[in-house]
Structure formats: structure tokens, C-alpha cells
């Protein structure tokens, strides 16, 4: 977020087509002193008020300023841009958001961007995470925390993103995951946002909570990495289905049932993998699912809408500027469910739709004609 940019040596790592472009934030002395212009939605605003919620400088609640932290990096252009400077020509996914563009400079020397980082946020697509993390492995300080904001599964291995990072960096690396209802564009403009943060140890989670909090970004702690990541990945699959149902004009009852049964499906898989069902009732489960299934900025919902209109998947994806994680996650989640004996009927139907084997309308009909069952499952 912009408040992190204003603190010490925050750096940004943007990724286009999985080829990293390293961007360093130049704001330092001017931001620390509270000087320099700030812009919000194209308008220049009072710098003290604009920064109050982000850096605790001039906090209107009377809290003392927080000391500048060590270097931090963001990997990724969409959500990563929301967690970064929030403006400038480097971020094509958020073109309407422009904050003092002079604060961002690009350089492709990755070592220079990472060597002093205390925290690196990975917000790149799931299919590129392993490659980028592997290339960054020798550049990261051994104590640097890696925070994943990616919502997906690695198709080839069926691993969650935190598992991919651990696989590349080792089990001793502090790792955390951010997930919840958080559109990058809204986060970049300072809209109040709350997410869940999970990690491989309590100290890591507490540190991320402490360092990322602001007047518009709130984090709730949990130790359930599995639940948080499965919720973040699977909600994209259900959102594609929700978009298709919306496009078919099937009324309000149908999408409501879809979201509810989609949550049950996500919870079954998370539970089978060792996650807690309670986690899926929170921000990283229900919260993110509702937003992604109904929000106008949802890429996965948009894919579903176009599928419902009868357009081929290749054409839909060819016109998108950003990644719709649900397309790749569908097959991975279905395979993961099969490995653990978990039935995923909505996911299975969406896999057929994405493969062009049936239409969304036929998929809905087949779901409605499935064997009757109890709503509450006894484990």
C-alpha cells in the first residue's frame, strides 16, 4: 500500500508475463518528513491527512509515529501494485490510479532490489511463482519474510503457493499468506479493506499484522494456512460459475444457491487437506467468495459471464489484460479433490464447461438433477 511506500526503503518488484521488472521506490527523505505532494483520484490532497492512515504520521487518533522499517519488496503488478505505490506507468492493470510518478524508478538488477529486503510480498500469478522465487532465492537475505498474496494452486504439483515457496526457499523461511476480499484497484485508492493473514509461525503472522496495518488495511490472524489458501484458490472457480449463471439470466435464487453450495465444496476440500472449516466462514472463505462472485471488478466472474454468452474460452482469455486464476485452478482443484476422495460437483461441471465439453446451461441442469442429499455433512 502507499503507506508502506512512504516508509524507508520500500521497493517494488513488478512482473509482466513472468519476466520480472524490478522497481525501486525513490520516496525516502521527503516522505519521512511528511513533505512532497500527494494525489488521490487525480486530485492533490493534504499530505498529512493522506499519509495519516498509512504511516501513522500525523495520526489523528494521537498515536505516536512509527519508526521507519527496513526494506520491503512487492512482486506482482495487480494486487502487488495495490500494495505498492499505487501509481505510475509501471502498472497497466491499474491505469486510472496515478500517484506521484516520480517516486518509482525501474531497474532490472534484481540483487539491488532485494538484498536489503526484510519482507518480500509475492503477488504474481500462481503459474509463475516457482520460477520467480527460484530466481530470487540467492538474492534474498536469509531472515527475510516472504508474504504470498497469490490465490491459486500450482497445476503441475497441486501444491498451494506457500508450499511452492517453501519448496524453493526451505522450511526455515518465514512465510505468510494474505487472502480475503481485496480488489487491487480499491486497495490502491485507499478503500477500507480487511483480509486474513496466516503463517508458518505465530511470530511471523504477528509481524505481518504489525507492519502492514494502516487506516484502511486491517489484518486478522490465523494459523490455518491450508484453509486460507484453499479458500483463496477455490473461490475463483466458483466465481466463474457465478458469472455464467448471471449471464444466463436465471434469477436471484440460483446464484445464491451456487455461492452457498460452492462454500460447502470449498470447505470439504480444505477440511480434507487439514484446514479448519471455521476459517472458510471468515474473510478468506465466505468474504472473498461473495466478493469474487458478485463484484464488478472480478476477472473470474467476467470469464463466466462471457462463457454464458457462448464465447469460446480462448477468445475470452485473449482479450483479458490480467490473469483469471480460476481457469487454471479448476483442473488443479479437481485433481486435488480426486487425490483425497473429495467430491467437487461444481468444480467438475466447470472443468467440462472450460474444456468446451458442455454449455453452462447444461452444467446447471446436471447439478440440479444430482442425487438428493443432506445439506449438513457428518464427518
UniProtKB/TrEMBL annotation:
GO terms for biological process: carbohydrate metabolic process; glycerol-3-phosphate catabolic process. InterPro entries: 6-PGluconate_DH-like_C_sf, 6PGD_dom2, G3P_DH_NAD-dep, G3P_DH_NAD-dep_C, G3P_DH_NAD-dep_N, NAD(P)-bd_dom_sf. Residues 32-108 are annotated as: Disordered. Residues 224-364 form the Glycerol-3-phosphate dehydrogenase NAD-dependent C-terminal domain. One of its GO terms (molecular function) is glycerol-3-phosphate dehydrogenase (NAD+) activity. NCBIfam families: PRK00094.1-2, PRK00094.1-4. This is Glycerol-3-phosphate dehydrogenase [NAD(+)].
Amino acid at each position: 500500500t502507499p503507506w508502506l511506500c512512504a516508509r524507508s526503503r520500500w521497493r517494488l518488484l513488478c512482473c509482466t508475463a513472468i519476466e520480472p521488472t524490478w522497481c525501486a521506490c525513490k520516496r525516502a527523505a521527503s516522505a519521512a518528513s511528511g513533505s512532497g505532494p500527494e494525489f488521490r483520484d487525480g486530485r492533490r490532497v493534504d499530505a498529512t491527512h493522506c499519509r495519516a492512515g498509512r504511516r501513522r504520521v500525523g495520526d489523528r487518533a494521537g498515536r505516536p509515529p512509527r519508526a521507519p522499517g527496513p526494506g520491503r519488496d512487492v512482486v506482482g503488478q495487480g494486487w502487488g501494485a495495490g500494495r505498492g505505490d499505487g501509481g505510475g506507468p509501471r502498472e497497466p492493470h491499474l491505469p486510472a490510479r496515478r500517484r506521484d510518478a516520480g517516486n518509482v524508478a525501474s531497474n532490472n538488477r534484481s540483487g539491488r532490489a532485494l538484498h536489503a529486503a526484510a519482507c518480500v510480498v509475492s503477488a504474481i500469478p500462481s503459474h509463475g511463482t516457482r520460477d520467480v522465487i527460484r530466481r530470487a532465492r540467492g538474492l534474498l537475505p536469509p531472515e527475510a519474510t516472504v508474504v504470498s498474496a497469490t490465490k491459486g494452486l500450482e497445476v503441475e504439483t497441486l501444491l498451494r503457493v506457500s508450499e511452492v515457496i517453501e519448496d524453493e526457499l526451505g522450511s526455515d523461511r518465514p512465510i505468510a499468506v494474505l487472502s480475503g476480499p481485496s480488489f487491487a484497484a480499491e486497495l490502491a485508492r485507499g478503500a477500507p479493506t480487511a483480509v486474513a493473514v496466516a503463517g508458518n509461525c505465530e511470530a511471523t503472522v504477528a509481524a505481518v499484522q504489525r507492519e502492514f496495518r494502516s487506516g484502511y488495511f486491517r489484518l486478522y490472524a490465523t494459523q490455518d494456512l491450508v484453509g486460507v489458501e484453499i479458500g483463496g484458490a477455490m473461490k475463483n472457480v466458483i466465481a466463474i460459475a457465478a458469472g455464467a449463471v448471471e449471464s444466463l439470466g436465471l434469477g436471484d435464487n440460483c446464484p445464491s444457491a451456487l455461492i452457498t453450495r460452492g462454500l460447502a465444496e470449498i470447505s470439504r476440500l480444505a477440511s480434507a487437506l487439514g484446514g479448519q472449516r471455521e476459517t472458510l466462514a471468515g474473510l478468506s472463505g465466505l468474504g472473498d467468495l461473495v466478493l469474487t462472485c458478485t463484484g464488478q471488478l472480478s476477472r473470474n466472474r467476467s470469464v463466466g459471464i462471457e462463457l454464458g454468452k457462448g464465447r469460446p474460452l480462448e477468445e475470452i482469455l485473449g482479450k483479458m489484460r490480467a490473469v483469471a486464476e480460476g481457469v487454471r485452478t479448476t483442473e488443479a482443484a479437481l485433481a486435488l479433490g480426486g487425490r483425497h476422495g473429495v467430491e467437487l460437483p461444481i468444480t467438475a461441471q466447470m472443468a467440462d464447461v472450460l474444456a468446451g465439453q458442455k454449455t453452462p446451461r447444461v452444467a446447471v441442469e446436471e447439478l440440479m438433477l444430482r442425487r438428493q442429499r443432506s445439506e449438513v455433512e457428518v464427518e
